[in-house]
Amino acid sequence: MRLSISRANLTRVIGAVSKVVESRNTIPVLSHLLLSADGKQLRVTGTDLDITATASAEADVHASGTICVDAKLLGSIAAKAGADSVELSLEGDKLIVKSGRSRFSLATLPATDFPTPPDGKYDATFDLDIAALFAPVQFAIAVNDNRKFLEGVYFHTKKGVAVAVATNGHRLSRHLGESLPEFKGIIVGPKTVSLLPKGVARVSVSEQKIRIEQGDFTLTSNLVDGEYPDYERVIPAGNEFIACADKSDILKASDRVATVSSERGSGVKLTVAPGSIALSVRSQVGAAQDEVQAEYSGEPIEIGFNAIYLRDALQVFPDGQVEIALNDGMSPARITSPVAPLLDVTLMPMRV
């Protein structure tokens, strides 16, 4: 293998796939990238066995070939290269990297050691900005939960419309998207969600895998096993007491009163009354209260929320007005916004 490639292209393709690779591995080849030079391009692949990413870039290939090299090491060398072009050549079992006056000799592993790239049939294929669809819900993904089916985004269709949902049992976020062909709902793991490319991509789904293709980048991932719960039962449909206030006002007031919180996950109490929402926190180190202007005409309601959950829920909405729909102080609340009509967040109350 022998080729020349621009430093910009090399760093781009390495950066695109290296996020998949885990640097600490009991299987040595999984900390490596597979380099494949052929025709007029260099193709770079990384995998952790569950997720595989491949990116390609134009290169001046003098001799085709394949080899595996440490991802972190090659990425660092490419980023620090002193010239605009980088030469890669295989000499025996060493990968020689040259750029300007710099020369590196890197240990390699045979390409045959690298796991076979995933393949298979897909049930549906469509174009979608899947990163934008998932973005407002991923904060609600469960972490370190025994219910593994909650550790991901539930991606499905409802009456021909794309839906992304995530919940940890205490908060739930749902985002509706554009029209899509029907397919069986799937659960996409958090690492895969974090690797989704921004912008419209070609998405293919089956009951076992999801594949995202955008330009010269392809991401293929196994799915989270399990059956997602009937989340719609949790979303309140009849909350008739609606308070409308500025999102930023609530966030700032909540942050101010949370200053006296003595521990992570402590609660904030909202007292909703005509004309205002009062926020208060009481802890062993002190107490605080603040108030924001609100449109509300119902009976006063007191309800407590996990302060962090409230903050996270509000932050996914665009700036402007949010509506908090309540039933009473012991029932779930539903947060929506007129400027984001396809997004809603449900918060379970907590005693404060």
Key attributes of the depicted protein:
DNA Polymerase III, Chain A, domain 2, 25 strands, 13-stranded antiparallel beta sheet, eight-stranded antiparallel beta sheet, 352 residues, mainly beta
Which stretches of 5+ consecutive residues score pLDDT under 50? none
Largest sheet: 13 strands, antiparallel
The CATH topology of the largest domain is given as DNA Polymerase III, Chain A, domain 2
| CATH architectural type of the largest domain | Roll
What would you say this structure looks like, in words?
The protein is mainly beta and 352 residues long. The protein has three domains: 112 residues, DNA Polymerase III, subunit A, domain 2 (DNA Polymerase III, Chain A, domain 2, Roll), CATH 3.10.150.10; 110 residues, DNA Polymerase III, Chain A, domain 2 (Roll), CATH 3.10.150; 107 residues, DNA Polymerase III, subunit A, domain 2 (DNA Polymerase III, Chain A, domain 2). The protein is built from six helices and 25 strands. A 13-stranded antiparallel β-sheet has the order 5-1-7-8-9-6-2-3-4-17-16-15-10, covered by helices on one side. Strands 14-11-12-13-25-24-23-18 form an eight-stranded antiparallel β-sheet. A hairpin with a 3-residue loop joins β12 and β13. α1 runs antiparallel to α2 and α5 runs antiparallel to α6. The protein is elongated, with a radius of gyration of 25 Å. The mean pLDDT is 96.
